TrEMBL record:
One of its GO terms (molecular function) is hydrolase activity. It comes from the Bacteria. PANTHER family: GDP-MANNOSE MANNOSYL HYDROLASE (PTHR43046). Residues 7-128 form the Nudix hydrolase domain. Its cofactor is Mg(2+). Coiled coil: none annotated. This is NUDIX hydrolase.
C-alpha cells in the first residue's frame, strides 16, 4: 500500500466591499482582470485580518469585515478554500499597489460588466445576491464547472 501525501489546500479570503454610496470596490488583477479584492491567507494569520490586509494591499483602503457570506471549494486542478466576506469601507483613498493594477468604486451593474472571468463573475454574483446565509459552492476550472451548490445554514 502506498502512503498518501497530506492534503494541501491554499486558503484564500475575498471581500465584497461597499462604500456609503453603495458602490462596489473592484480591483484589476494582472492576469484575471477585474475582481473583488482577494488573496492568500499568510502563515499564522486569521481570516479576518487576512481579508483586511488584502483589501489594504490591493486598493489602499481600510475596511470593516462583516459576515461570512460564501465558501468556495476549488477542487481541480489544485485545491483551494475561499472564504468570502461582506465588508464596509472605513477610510482611505484608492491607491492600488504592486498587488493590483487599478482600483475603482463602481455600481453593481458596472461591476457585473467589468468582471469577465467566469470564476470571478460567479463569486461576485453570489456575493451580490447574498441572502443572509452562507452559500457553498464546489467547482473546477479549465473549464469552469460548478459541481455543488447549497446554503450552509439550511438543511433540506
Amino acid at each position: 500500500m502506498t502512503e498518501q501525501a497530506d492534503p494541501r489546500h491554499t486558503v484564500v479570503v475575498g471581500c465584497l466591499v461597499r462604500n456609503a454610496k453603495d458602490e462596489i470596490l473592484v480591483i484589476r488583477h494582472r492576469k484575471r482582470g477585474w475582481e473583488i479584492p482577494q488573496g492568500r491567507v499568510e502563515e499564522g494569520e486569521n481570516l479576518l485580518d487576512a481579508a483586511r490586509r488584502e483589501v489594504a494591499e490591493e486598493a489602499g483602503v481600510e475596511v470593516e469585515i462583516g459576515p461570512l457570506a460564501a465558501v468556495w471549494s476549488m477542487v481541480s486542478p489544485t485545491s483551494a478554500l475561499i472564504f468570502a466576506f461582506l465588508g464596509r469601507y472605513l477610510s482611505g483613498e484608492l491607491n492600488p499597489t504592486d498587488d493590483s493594477e487599478a482600483a475603482a468604486w463602481v455600481s453593481e451593474a458596472e461591476a457585473l460588466k467589468m468582471v469577465t472571468s467566469p470564476v470571478m463573475r460567479e463569486r461576485l454574483t453570489g456575493l451580490l445576491n447574498h441572502d443572509g446565509g452562507v452559500s457553498y459552492r464546489s467547482y473546477a476550472i479549465k473549464p469552469y464547472q460548478l459541481h455543488l451548490e447549497r446554503n450552509l445554514l439550511s438543511w433540506p
